Every structure is written in structure tokens, then in C-alpha cells.
Amino acid sequence: HVQLVESGGESVQVGGSLRLSCAVSGNIVGRHCMGWFRQPPGKGREGVAIIYPETGAAVSSTSVKGRFTASQDIAKNAVYLQMDSLEPEDTAMYYCAASMLMCVFDSEYYAYWGQGTQVTVS
Prior knowledge:
The chain is an all-beta fold. It is built from no helices and 11 strands.
């Protein structure tokens, strides 16, 4: 049974940093693609980072490249999103998700989702 639980979201000032965590049950970290997505108020869901399971290599979207870094810890069954130089446009609900199919930024490929954690930048 796969469960994902995000934490670490909070209100932060412009230019600040946050580290989001996603605790994963179901022994899938390192075996399946993990992704981080966000949904700003009134907007659609956007992929911000994906983690390739075999290598742990992470790719960030162009909108956050150079500021956000995703990582995984197989021993802890967790994935993380380090967010630096935060901007008001980063305000959103952030979700981690797992894909049993392809490692892409398209949320349609992700079958398992956490409940989200709110990040507010002002």
C-alpha cells in the first residue's frame, strides 16, 4: 500500500529557503519515479522536479532550475525538495507523487499523491 505524506511547507519571506520532505511507504523510493508538483491558487498543477529512481538523478523544470533541487533517500524511504531564492510566484500547494510508468513532468503519469503542503512566499 503506497502512501505519501508531505511536510515542511510554511510562510517564508522573499529570498528565503525551505526544504520539503515526503515520507513514502510502500518501498518505492529508488524503484519508481518520484516527482514534485505544485498548484498555485486558481491555477493548474505544474511539475517542478522529477527523480530518476535508478540513479537518483533529479531534473528541475525551467521555471525553478537553479533554485529548486530534488533528492531521494532510499534508506529513509523519503524524497526532498530544497527550495532556495524563493519568489512570490512560488506560492502554491506542493505535492509529491509517484509514477509507476514514465519519469516525466506530466502529472497524468503519476498514480500516487500526497495530500500536499502549503508554501507561501511574501
